[in-house]
Predict the 3D structure of the following.
Amino acid sequence: MDKACIITGFPSLRQPNTILVDHEGSYTLRCQNAMQVGDLRFTGKKGRKARGFVVKNLNKYIGKNYGTDFRYTRNAKSRIGRCSLKPDVAGDAVSNSRDQNDVSHNDIFSQADLQSETNGGSRRSLKENSVLETEGMVFGLGEPDSWDSMEIGCPVVRRYLSDNEERWYMWYYGRKRGSQDSVGLALSSNGIHWLRGSGSIETDDDVGIVMECTNDWWAFDTEIIRPSDVLVMSSPKVRVSSGVYWLYYSGCNSDEINIPPMLLRNPGRIGGSGLESTVLRSLPGLAMSSDGRNWARIEGDHHSGALLDTGAEGEWDSLSVAAPQVVLHSLDDLRMYYHSFDVKSGCFSVGVARSRDGIRWVKLGKILEGGLPGSFDELGITSRHVISNQKGNGYLMVYEGVAADGSRSIGLAQSHDGLKNWKRCQNKPVFGPSPILNAWDSRGVGSPCLVNTDDNEWRLYYQGLGVEGKTRIGLATCIDGSLKNFQRWHGFHV
C-alpha cells in the first residue's frame, strides 16, 4: 500500500487537497484543486534518505515558488484528502468549486489549539487529516474574486408554492476582500441546491447582487447592509395593485460603538474583525421590490433614512437597533423585533416596536434579555426569528444566544401575545456548534431562519463560523414539529 503524507502550509496550493505519495521510490506532490491541477514528481532511493531528499527538494521548490515552507505527517493512510462538499450536501457546482479553495491555513491543529477548544468542558474530536467537515452546509463561499468570496451570512429563506412549481429564494449578505457588504439573491427548487451569481444581476430572472451600500453621505447604510427579513405585503402607502416584497435590513455607516471584544467572536458580528473593541452602529432600514431583485429604499423618519433611531443615553438600546425582523399580526398591526447591547446589564437584549403601516414605528421596550449564569445565553440574545405558534396560541422565537465566553448557540422562547411575558422553552439550546473541531460550524451558529415544509417538519437555515474563521450557511431539520431539537441536514429522506 502506498504511503502518503498530508502537505499543509502553502496556501497557493490550497491544502489539504495535496498529498505526497510513495510509488516505489518515486514521490509525487499531487495537486487537486481549481487553482492548480498536476503533479510535481521527485525520484530517489527508498527509505528515509529518499523521503528526506524529497522533503528537502519540496522545501526548495515551494520556498522558491510560493515563499513558504510546509509540514507533513509520516505514514498517513493512503487516501487523498478532500474539502469539497459531499454529493448529497453540495449546493451547486459553483459552491463546490469555491469550497475546495476555501480552507484556511489551519488544517493541522496544534496541541494548544486542541487544548483551547476543550477548556470549556465540552470534548471535541478532530477528524482524521483535519479535512474541513461539511455536514449540514448547503451554501459555501463564492468563487475567487466573486462578490461573496470572503464572507457570507444572515440567510433569509422563503419558500413559494404555485400550481406548477416550488421556488426557494434566499437573500443573504456577502463581501469580498477589501469591499463593502452587498445583499445577494440565490434561487433553488428544493432549498438545498442553490443557483448563485458572481456579480450584480443583469436580467429580471438573474441571480447575484441585488442591493449595495448607498453612496449618500448622510445615510445610515453607507458601510454595511445585511438582510433581516422579507415579507410580501400590500399597503395603501404603496401604489401598486398587488403585493410587493418588503426587505427589512440592518445598515451601518462609520459611527462606532464600544462592545466587549470577546462578544465580537461570533457569526453575526456587525463590523470589526473579531479582535477589535469597536463595531459600527446599526439601524433598521426598509426597501421594496416588485420582483425581489430590483429594490428601492424607503426612507424612514430618521434624518439618515432609518426607520428607527437608537434610544437616548442610558436607555437599553442607546447603542444600536439591529437585525429588524417583522411579524404581520393583523392588517394594521405589525411588530418589529430587534436587538441591542444594553450597557447597564452588560448583555444583548431583544426589544419590540409596533406599526400600523410597516414604515412608522413606535418602540414598546425590552422583552427578553440574558439568561441565568452559566447558561448558553448568559450574555443575551441577538438575531432571532419570530413565528406564530402553529400548535397553539401565541408566538415562538428561535434566537441566537450568547454565552459568557462569546460562543453562539440557538435557543427557543415563547409568548402568548408576542409582546410581553416571553419565556424560554428550555434551559439548553435547540441547536449548537458542531462538536467536531474541524467542522465548518464548530465555533458558533446563529442568524436563524425557519421555514415550514410540511405539517410537522421545519427547516432551520443558519450562519455558521468555522475554526478557520470563515462563515458559511447551513441547514438543520426538526421532523417532529416541536422546534426543540434540530439535527444537521445530511440528505433527503428516502
Summary: DSSP finds three helices and 27 strands in the chain. Residues 1-124, 265-276 have pLDDT under 50 and may be disordered. The first helix runs from residue 48 to 66.
